């Protein structure tokens, strides 16, 4: 394979990887919530709001829900997510997820 071709492929792959890494926090939250089972429109609304209201530690905790509930992925409600988060003892995180979930349904 010509050296030029290798560089072109490497650059294309690098560009795709860079685009994936450029997802905003809101987009990553939306993707996770949709993966958990929250309807897409509600997940997008929640992602936009939660990205502005949660700190890095809380965002990480929200991202770990799927690891704790692999058997329920795709079938979780906001209430299920809140119940799992409640085990972490972060009342502010639970309250924000519930408040945002309700606000995004109305």
Describe the structure.
It comes from Sandarakinorhabdus fusca. 75% of the residues lie in helices and 0% in strands. It is built from 7 helices and no strands. The chain is globular and about 25 Å long. It is mainly α. It has one domain.
Query: Which overall shape is indicated by the principal axes computed on the Cα atoms?
Result: globular
Q: In oligomeric terms, what are we looking at?
A: single chain
Largest sheet: none
Terminus-to-terminus distance: 58 Å
Protein name: Lipoprotein
Keywords: Signal
Organism: Sandarakinorhabdus fusca
Signal peptide: 1-20
Question: How would you sum up this structure in a few lines?
Answer:
By secondary structure, this protein is an all-alpha fold.
Relevant terms:
single chain, 106 residues, mainly alpha, 7 helices
Blueprint (SSEs and pairs):
Blueprint: H1 3-21, H2 25-36, H3 40-53, H4 56-63, H5 65-68, H6 78-86, H7 91-103
Helix pairs in contact: 2-3, 3-7, 6-7
